[in-house]
Amino acid sequence: MVKIMGKYENQPWEEIDEFDTRKEAMEALREYRLAYGAGWRLRLKSV
Question: What's the DSSP call for residue 11?
Fold first, then answer.
């Protein structure tokens, strides 16, 4: 299981979404980066 974690500027990290495979998570991460914009830091976290 892989989670997408997000953080907006000075806020704490939060879980955005979760996926069964890393490939699915990577594809979604690209979309989230476009949708959320420059103020967000997004990363993957294996669970």
Answer: S
